[in-house]
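Field reference: "sequence" (input) and "structure" (output). Example, Leucine-rich repeat-containing N-terminal plant-type domain-containing protein:
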Amino acid sequence: MQKHMTFLVLVYALLAALACLQFGRGSTVEDYRNTSCIESEKLALLHLKHGLVDDFNYLSSWDGDDCCAWHGVGCNNGTGHVTRLDLRNGMLRADHIYHSLLDLKYLTYLDLSNNNFEKLKIPQFFGSFKDLTYLNLSYTNFEGLVPHHLGNLSKLRHLDLGLNYYSNPNAFDLSNLYNSLLSIDSMWWLSKLSSLVHLDLSYVNLSKATDWFSSINMLPHSIVVLNLLSCQLSNNIPRHLPFVNLTSLISLNLEENSLNSSFPLWVLNNSGLAHLSLRLNRFHGSIPDSLGTLTSLVEIDLSYNSFNGLINPESIGRLVSLSSLDLSSNEFQGHLPKSMRRLSSLTYLGLMDNNFQGSIPHSISNLTELTYLYMSSNELRGDLPEEVCQLSKLKSLDVSFNQMSGRIPDCIGQLSNLISLGLYDNSWEGFVTAHHFVNLTKLIDLSISSYSNLALDVSINWVPPFQLQFIYIESLKVGPKFPRWLLTQRQFLDFRMINTSISDTIPTDWFSNLLSHAYLVYLSDNDINVEQLSSISAVPNGLQTLALSNTRLFGGFPLFLCNITSLRTLVLSNNYFTGELPQCLANLTQLQDLDVMNNNFSGTIHASLGSLRHLEYLNFHDNNFQGKLPLSFQNLTELVILDVGKNNLSDVLPSWTVEQLLGLRILILRSNKFYGKIPTNLCHHPAIQVLNFAHNQIVGNIPPCFGNFSTMITVNKSDDFHPDFPWRWAYSKMIIDDAKGHELNYTSGLEFLHSIDLSNNNIDGEIPEELMDLRGLTSLKLAGNHLAGRIPERIGNLERLEFLDLSGNKLFGHIPQSLSNLDFLSHLNLSFNNLSGRLPTGNHIQTLYDPSINDGNNQLCGQPILEPCVGDTGSPDVPYYDEGNSDLDEEHVWFYAGIGPGLLVGFLGFCACLHYIKSWRYSYFHLIDRVFDKIVVAFALWKRKFQN
């Protein structure tokens, strides 16, 4: 925020200077008050007022004879013509803007910014103000196409159409968070604005303007400010240009687009460039060393791209005017350049979410102006140097999510301006004491955790000097007693104390007060006295997230929770709650996440839960619920994850999950008493990626149409972006999957899990050939059924498969050789079938050496079961290669045959270099002489010592 404020201040200063140059003396309303305005122009202004809705009496002065004295109106001192109309910040509304405004023929300045002209288009007649030099329509809510007629404004120096958008609170990713109201289909008309100095098109949709870059490059040499923030630009921009018009830029903003190229070298032609932002794009490659030639740079923001490589120390060290440098969320690596010590004007340094290594250099103490230092999510090691404590102006310090170790220096407590301190997720050791906080009177945000042995060591009567609003402490020993100093903190908004070894009674008043003020509370993985929950009667609305998992709570469901209607996330998993879930849960109409996994809840699942229409995550796994799955669940149209596994539900498999729950991705019904056939309409579900019906009473065949699961057909790579998976979830969702006989908890990466588990049912028939089209499938478990037939030959097509369990069926025939193509396979079980023939060999499958994976198939032979096949010779310990592996044998022959000639060619090449390159020859034989001399001397000394 600080760096953007600096940018705005400088831009506004520039605009003010331009305005002064343009209008000179007499540009303010007061200077014109002695000049009577032209009657026709006065009527035009009154006509404009008539079409405006003035809710705040902004135009209350528009009723006298002299319109030059009206608020926002400026006239020429000699002629009386209206030349300036400044209605910014008026919060005016309009149904129509009348053409009578054209009577202001001498208008040079028009500012309508920060008003609300919703559903109106920019009038085409605005292009008729021939003398206009300044036009600002930002924050006006104009919509539709920007008229090309604006290209007629040949004297225009300042054009601002930016920040006309509406927010989309239901967006699944940041790129859709704001939607443009204005759009431009072609930008050819821009090149006609030959006097343009300032152009701001932020949030104008330019996705259809394929000529945007060529048109921008045709802008006049004089342009100094170019702002194309969030314009939905996606086509590549060239790195080099045959000619460059843009050589006078002072400020260039291309952030929040989808530009995909290496660093644009034409930017380096602007030697006076002070502000550069390429944030939130897809730029890649290394940063050119010549960036160091832009010595006027004050702000650089390259964050949220894919830049990589090392930072050139000399290049970065030349940018001595920098006040803000943000390289966050890229792929930079290497050590932090020590040359950064030259950047003595730096106030903001953002290096988080990269691959920087090594330690924080001690020379960081030279950055005496530094106010914000962000180094989280890297690979930094070593201590936090005490030199950091010399940065007395620091307001925010974050080194979280690194590999730092050692003791936290207690001189941190001397940073009296510190507001936010992030020490989370490192390997700190020792103690955190009162000295670490002694002068941190402004601290409101504290996060700290450690993989090692770290404890908070303060006296029982310690009173912190701060009032925290945000606290995130995990795996730091704070208990076993409840820390009394928390009673002094009365302003918590975000409270997270997880796995802090607290095993005590929590004061009822304090906990009730916490729930009353905070919007997020985590107390998971602690031992809390349940009596304090049961005694709370009412909590004011405001709390949005409450997570009390694994806190050893017991008893009935805390009824006071039903009154917190603002709740969006409620997590009570891994406790000892009993009884039924109350029907009053239906009061929580804003609830998005409900997790009561691994408790002892019983009874039926109330149909009233179907009224929670915003639910996205519902986890009832491992309880004692009985009865049927409520039909009302088909009303949960926003549901993404439904897990009712390991209960006593008895019902026919639901078919309504397809027709109503179109966003459902994970459906887990395992370990219940569901029965019947698998509904074929399930095949048409557009989003399903995890389907677990294991350990039920399902009969019939596996529908061949399972091969239609679209999310499992596509191979998702780990670096792919998944816009359909909700990014706004408040906490890590957990699902449980069974693999290798053990339950695995998945709390992250759910978007990459694609699984089908139908094991331990009464399913018969064959394995459908269509399943082999699911190339993105990561887990397929069909064990413990009555499947017959052969394993499909195309099983090698499941290239992402990690788990395959076909055990305990009636499969026969040979095991397909294509199984060896599954490079990601880590668990395979084909035991207790009727398989026969040679085991497949080669590639990754030979690493799966556990013989038990083939138990119960007595007609199998070959490695690794040590049962030789007919025709095998030699020791059974020696792998036998059949014709299918002839290519492998041939590779070995050619490999060994090539060793001799390769060594000979290498030796002759070395000799040739010695013969033809004199410097090599001298150096080589000089080295031989030195080595020989050392050997002779060493031998002589050894011989003399032996003789003595």
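Residues 460 and 484 are 6 Å apart (CA to CA).
DSSP finds ten helices and 59 strands in the chain.
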